[in-house]
UniProtKB/TrEMBL annotation:
Binding site for substrate: M185, N209, Y210, A211
Taxon lineage: Archaea, Methanobacteriati, Methanobacteriota, Stenosarchaea group, Methanomicrobia
Role: Catalyzes the reversible phosphorylation of S-methyl-5'-thioinosine (MTI) to hypoxanthine and 5-methylthioribose-1-phosphate. Involved in the breakdown of S-methyl-5'-thioadenosine (MTA), a major by-product of polyamine biosynthesis. Catabolism of (MTA) occurs via deamination to MTI and phosphorolysis to hypoxanthine.
Broadest EC class assigned to this enzyme: transferase
Keywords carried by this UniProt record: Glycosyltransferase, Purine salvage, Transferase
UniProt cross-references to HAMAP family, sorted A to Z: MTAP (MF_01963)
Highest taxon above the source species: Archaea
Organism this protein belongs to: Methanosalsum natronophilum
Glycosyltransferase keyword on record: yes
Protein's UniProt name: Probable S-methyl-5'-thioinosine phosphorylase
Enzyme Commission no: 2.4.2.44
Coiled-coil regions listed: none
Residues involved in phosphate binding: R56, H57, T186
Entry's Gene Ontology molecular function annotations: S-methyl-5-thioadenosine phosphorylase activity
CDD domains found in the cross-reference section: MTAP_SsMTAPII_like_MTIP
Length: 263
C-alpha cells in the first residue's frame, strides 16, 4: 500500500504532469496496473503531505469523457492507504443567478443522462447500491466550511451528467434545468464506482461557462480553459486543506456502502 494523505482525480487542465505541481518539490510518477487497465498516478510531497493525483483525461491525446477508463482509475485507489478522494470537475451553469462562471460548486446529488458507459464493478452478482447520499457528507462539510472561510463564492446542488463529448442543445438544457443546477460530462460513473468500493468521495466543480442557450454567446473551449486557469490557485489551496484534514475524517457510511445491498 502506498501511503498518501489524499487522492485527487484531476479534470481538464490537470492532464500534463507539468501542470500538476502544487508548490511541491517535484513528483513521483507511478503506473498502477488494475484488472481494468493501467492508471497513471503522480505523487507529490509538500509541507509534510503526500498527495496522489490521477489525471482523469491522461493519454496520448486528451481522452474524451465518454472514453475515460473510470473503472481503472477508481480501482487504482485501492493501491493507497487512504480512502478519501477529491474529484475536480468543470461544469456549465444552468442557473445564471445561483452559479456564475468563475465560482465553485459542490455537488450533493446527481442525475445521470449518460448513455454508454460501464457503471459498476459488479458484473457477476447483483448489488443494489444505496445512492441516497452519493457524495461523502463529511468531506462536503469540510469543503463547505473551508470555502466559506476563504470568502470564495460557491453553491451546492444537483450535478447533471451528460454523455458528451458534444455540448448539450438548448432544448436539452431547458429540460435539464428543471432537475439540476450544473451540467458536466465526467461525474458519472466515477461517483458510483467510488461508492461501490467504499471510498469517501466528493467533488469540487469549477463553474467554467454558461450552459448552451443560457447566454447568447457561442460556447467555446477557450472560455472553459480560461476559467479553469483562473481557478487553479484556489483549487491548490482546497487540495492542501483537504489533505491536512484527512485524519479528521471519521468512519462513515461510505465505507459500508454495500452492506445489505447484495442479493
Amino acid at each position: 500500500m502506498i501511503d498518501v494523505d489524499l487522492i485527487v482525480i484531476g479534470g481538464v487542465g490537470f492532464t500534463n504532469s507539468e501542470k500538476l505541481s502544487f508548490g511541491s518539490n517535484g513528483y513521483e510518477m507511478k503506473k498502477i496496473e488494475t484488472p481494468y487497465g493501467t492508471t497513471l498516478v503522480h505523487i507529490f510531497e509538500t509541507i509534510g503531505l503526500r498527495i496522489a493525483i490521477i489525471p482523469r483525461h491522461f493519454g496520448t491525446n486528451h481522452v474524451p469523457p465518454h472514453n475515460i477508463n473510470y473503472r481503472a482509475n477508481i480501482w487504482a485507489t485501492k493501491s493507497f492507504a487512504c480512502n478519501r478522494v477529491l474529484a475536480l470537475n468543470s461544469v456549465g451553469t444552468m442557473n445564471e443567478i445561483k452559479n456564475l462562471p468563475g465560482t465553485f460548486f459542490i455537488p450533493n446529488d446527481f442525475i445521470d443522462y449518460t448513455k454508454s458507459r460501464i457503471y459498476t464493478f459488479f458484473d457477476e452478482k447483483t448489488v443494489h447500491l444505496d445512492m441516497t447520499d452519493p457524495y461523502c457528507a463529511q468531506m462536503r462539510s469540510k469543503l463547505n466550511s473551508f470555502l466559506g472561510n476563504l470568502g470564495t463564492k460557491f453553491s451546492e446542488g444537483t450535478y447533471v451528467c451528460t454523455e458528451g463529448p458534444r455540448f448539450e442543445t438548448k432544448a436539452e438544457i431547458k429540460m435539464l434545468q428543471q432537475f439540476g443546477d450544473v451540467v458536466g460530462m465526467t461525474g458519472i460513473p466515477e461517483v458510483i464506482l467510488a461508492r461501490e468500493i467504499g471510498l469517501c468521495y466528493c467533488s469540487i466543480c469549477t463553474v467554467t461557462n454558461y450552459a448552451c442557450g443560457i447566454s447568447t454567446n457561442k460556447l467555446t473551449i477557450d472560455e472553459v480553459i480560461e476559467n479553469i486557469e483562473q481557478s487553479k490557485d484556489t483549487l491548490a489551496e482546497i487540495i492542501l486543506h483537504m489533505a491536512k484534514q484527512s485524519d479528521t475524517i471519521k468512519i462513515c457510511a461510505c465505507q459500508n456502502s454495500i452492506d445489505g445491498a447484495t442479493l
